[in-house]
């Protein structure tokens, strides 16, 4: 049996290779994501471990910033002298560094990265742990001088003697590049500007008596933990103390969010490849077993029992899994190397020579590859074992005649009913958490039900889809339709591979279209200003930007916005950390706010605030209540709830709770905040287009901010949602690739199965071109069938997803009909492409040899 199994496997290696491709793709994405994330993690662990001080002292932040406010936590610079005299301290250094800056060259072009990495300005001092070293020029020695990192200098063609303008919170200032510093470790992709310490304190923090942290070196023989204990005993709990290991762990946790995005995206691709590949492998083994029924029957007649037959098929699956996993692991290594090179182009200089392949990567790769093939081959193997010797010798199974689909109908109906109930429950749910859980359950069950019941839909749907074939293509069209109807199980499984990807696209396309429409309606409903001046990444900006906007020739009313981190103690005792929006008094003239209680004037009054009425109701808050509020720096106040708003999705379109307050209150408790937006209306007699030109001219020195109107805001939202759609389309592309392999495999095996039939058709006059069209039409009708199932299922999912979004305030519903039509047309192209090789092979058959085929 083992010899027969090996001979059978290698006899069909060409056909099995298409199935192996699905395994290879899924394993490659799993291996590539693990290798890439392990490599980046190891690289940055070394960076953080080698550059962190023994102990770092920073300001304690009691409120997490949900949205950047521009606040820079600081410690007194004189604390360094106090710490230097403590037990176990060998020395101290002031750290002065900020990220919320923009640096431009002499042509007013930003020199920072465009990939999301920060531009950092910090003070220059040299230790054995410095991440950079001076490689050209000299150190900065006073105001107007700076070092620049070598990578940024190379990317922006900057050199010693060039002038840069730094736009920081206290104001903008110019510096001359006097030296170039080169990274001694991995460059994380940031742009670094180094100033001398005194200049950094004055220009970056606006206070020569402040620093952002203090690096403390341990004396010989003193461990980091012991030094931390000594400092804690002296300083109490007033400051945040972190050892080098703790700093590295904290930095790695922040980096983890970035890595998780890449990892989960790649694992998503792997999941789609696995799911779609299962259909392909099931179909391949089912057809191979059907074609080998006579062979299997002979084995049974010669004494092989059911267990041996089943074991033979599973052995072939094992071999396929091992080969696919090995090739997939090798492909995954190449994929990880490609990602490392891509990160290099984006500014993160990783080294492929330092690639990390942990023991978990090959284990996961072989577990996925072998597991997928075993799972997919199990049912065909059981089916092969149940074939009796006489039935096999009679060749009953070859033509796919078959067993009734009663069991499928019953199981599919039960699972489908459960899935429909879950989706209905999702639509009726009143909380987003419960709705999300029901949505996930409903999606999974309806997908399974559609796969199970798919063959039941083959005959009625394909009769309709191919109904015009006989009239248009004559006898060729009639035969292609009947070929697709010949084996509903096979046709259903082949179409299911395409259905999975298209269902995902359909559901998320409806969700994205609904989100876009909801945001558009929200912008129309809430934004009343002619223009808004904002940072490109919504970061706060210096006051001089606001002053420049106010000074624009056509500017009339100007209302500022600022974000303020706060912590509310609610009547129910819960502490809620959020970010409040602070506005100037004439908010009503630039925004459209609806209230259930109070008004704008009451909300923006001194020591007052407003919030969303649904958020207030959740916590038992009413208009007029007084709440204990904590601001950064442990400043505390008791504020009156002056108004409750009625803005759908206040927790989705903005910070949790939709909390807002007046500038007078914000200045009283957070005096060093930065503006995050400026709302501007045109002055009397000034046209909006004229105002835009005036604003863009006035803000030309500040490339970090943009002037936006309602249309610009809508386009910005669409571009952000498009990022999700691009991922969906990429998943669709992968699903289509594997689905095409499935159609190719099905048609190729079908051609082999029908060799004698094709020979007879050719003998009675069927031309090669007619034969090719017969196979192409069969492929197209199968592809369109899968596309229609996917679109129908995706629309159901999209409706359910929109109901979940409605709980978050996104109540609009939209169906992207253009996308749906494009998917159907695309499925026709997929069908034609998948049929090329099988049609070519069939057309080249020798007629006499085909008729004589056994």
UniProtKB/TrEMBL annotation:
Keywords, A to Z?
Cell membrane, Membrane, Transmembrane, Transmembrane helix
* Localization in the cell: Cell membrane
**Keyword Cell membrane (UniProt):** yes
Q: How does it sit in the membrane?
A: Multi-pass membrane protein
Query: Does Acetylation show up as a keyword for this record?
Result: no
Which positions fall inside the ABC3 transporter permease C-terminal domain?
269-389, 731-847
Q: Where is the MacB-like periplasmic core domain?
A: 17-232, 491-697
Q: Where are the transmembrane segments?
A: 264-290, 317-343, 363-381, 409-430, 436-458, 492-515, 723-752, 773-797, 817-837
Pfam families membership: FtsX, MacB_PCD
UniProt record similarity statement: Belongs to the ABC-4 integral membrane protein family.
Q: Which PANTHER family match?
A: ABC TRANSPORTER PERMEASE YTRF, MEMBRANE COMPONENT OF TRANSPORTER-RELATED
- What protein name applies here? ABC transporter permease
């Amino acid at each position: 049996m083992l010899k027969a199994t090996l001979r059978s496997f290698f006899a069909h290696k060409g056909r099995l290779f298409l199935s192996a491709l699905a395994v290879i793709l899924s394993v490659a994405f799993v291996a590539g994501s693990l290798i890439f994330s392990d490599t980046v993690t190891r690289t940055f662990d070394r960076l953080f471990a080698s550059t962190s001080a023994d102990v770092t002292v920073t300001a304690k932040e009691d409120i997490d910033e949900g949205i950047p406010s521009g606040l820079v936590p600081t410690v007194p610079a004189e604390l360094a002298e106090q710490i230097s005299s403590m037990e176990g301290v060998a020395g101290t250094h002031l750290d002065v560094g900020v990220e919320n800056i923009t640096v431009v060259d002499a042509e007013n072009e930003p020199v920072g990265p465009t990939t999301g990495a920060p531009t950092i300005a910090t003070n220059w001092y040299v230790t054995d742990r410095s991440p950079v070293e001076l490689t050209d020029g000299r150190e900065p020695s006073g105001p107007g001088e700076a070092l620049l990192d070598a990578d940024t200098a190379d990317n922006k063609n900057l050199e010693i003697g060039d002038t840069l303008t730094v736009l920081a919170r206290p104001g903008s200032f110019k510096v001359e590049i006097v030296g170039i510093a080169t990274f001694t470790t991995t460059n994380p992709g940031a742009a670094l500007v180094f100033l001398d310490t005194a200049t950094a304190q004055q220009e970056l923090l606006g206070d020569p008596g402040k620093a952002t942290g203090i690096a403390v070196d341990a004396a010989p023989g003193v461990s980091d933990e012991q030094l931390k204990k000594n400092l804690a005993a002296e300083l109490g709990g007033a400051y945040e103390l972190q050892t080098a290991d703790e700093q590295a762990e904290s930095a790695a946790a922040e980096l983890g969010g970035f890595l998780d995005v890449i990892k989960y995206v790649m694992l998503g691709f792997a999941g789609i490849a696995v799911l779609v590949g299962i259909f392909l492998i099931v179909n391949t083994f089912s057809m191979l077993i059907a074609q080998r029924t006579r062979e299997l029957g002979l084995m049974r007649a010669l004494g092989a029992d059911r267990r041996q037959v089943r074991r033979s098929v599973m052995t072939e699956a094992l071999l396929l899994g091992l080969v696919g996993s090995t090739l997939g692991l090798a492909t995954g290594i190449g994929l990880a190397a490609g990602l490392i090179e891509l990160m290099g182009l984006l500014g993160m200089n990783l080294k492929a020579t330092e690639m990390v392949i942990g023991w978990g990567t090959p284990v996961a790769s072989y577990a996925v590859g072998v597991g997928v093939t075993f799972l997919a081959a199990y049912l065909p193997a059981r089916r092969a074992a149940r074939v009796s010797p006489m039935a096999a010798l009679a060749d009953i199974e070859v033509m796919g005649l078959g067993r009734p689909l009663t069991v499928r109908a019953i199981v599919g109906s039960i699972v489908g009913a459960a899935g429909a109930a879950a989706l209905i429950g999702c639509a009726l749910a009143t909380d987003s958490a419960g709705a999300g859980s029901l949505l996930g359950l409903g999606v999974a069950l309806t997908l399974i039900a559609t796969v199970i019941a798919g063959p039941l839909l083959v005959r009625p749907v394909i009769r309709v889809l191919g109904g015009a074939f006989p009239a248009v293509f004559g006898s060729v069209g009639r035969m292609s339709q009947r070929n697709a109807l010949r084996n509903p199980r096979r046709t259903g499984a082949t179409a299911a591979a395409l259905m999975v990807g298209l269902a995902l696209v359909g559901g998320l396309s409806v969700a994205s279209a609904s989100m876009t429409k909801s945001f558009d309606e929200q912008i129309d409903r809430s934004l009343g200003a002619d223009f808004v001046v904002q940072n490109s990444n919504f970061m706060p900006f210096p006051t001089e930007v606001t002053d420049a906007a106010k000074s624009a020739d056509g500017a009339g009313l100007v209302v500022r916005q600022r974000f303020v981190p706060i912590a509310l103690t609610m009547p129910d005792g819960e502490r809620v950390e959020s970010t409040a929006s602070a506005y100037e008094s004439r908010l009503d003239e630039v925004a459209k706010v609806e209230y259930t209680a109070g008004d704008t004037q009451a909300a923006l009054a001194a020591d007052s605030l407003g919030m969303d009425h649904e958020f207030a109701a959740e916590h038992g808050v009413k208009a007029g209540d007084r709440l204990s509020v904590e601001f950064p720096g442990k400043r505390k106040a008791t504020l009156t709830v002056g108004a409750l708003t009625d803005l759908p999705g206040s927790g989705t379109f903005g910070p949790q709770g939709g909390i807002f307050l007046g500038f007078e209150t914000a200045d009283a408790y957070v005096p060093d905040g930065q503006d995050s937006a400026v709302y501007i209306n045109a002055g009397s007699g000034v046209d909006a287009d004229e105002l835009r030109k005036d604003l863009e001219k006035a803000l030309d020195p500040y490339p970090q901010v943009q002037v936006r109107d309602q249309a610009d805001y809508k386009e910005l939202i669409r571009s952000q949602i498009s990022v999700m759609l691009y991922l969906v389309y990429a998943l669709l592309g992968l699903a289509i690739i594997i689905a095409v392999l499935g159609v190719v495999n099905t048609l190729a095996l079908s051609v082999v199965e029908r060799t004698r039939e094709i020979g007879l058709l050719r003998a009675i006059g069927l031309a090669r071109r007619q034969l090719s069209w017969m196979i192409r039409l069969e492929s197209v009708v199968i592809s369109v069938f899968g596309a229609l199932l996917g679109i129908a299922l995706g629309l159901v999912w999209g409706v359910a997803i929109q109901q979940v979004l409605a709980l978050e305030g996104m109540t609009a519903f939209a169906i992207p009909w253009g996308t749906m039509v494009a998917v159907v047309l695309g499925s026709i192209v997929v069908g034609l492409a998948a049929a090329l090789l099988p049609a070519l092979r069939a057309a080249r058959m020798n007629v006499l040899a085909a008729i004589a085929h056994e």
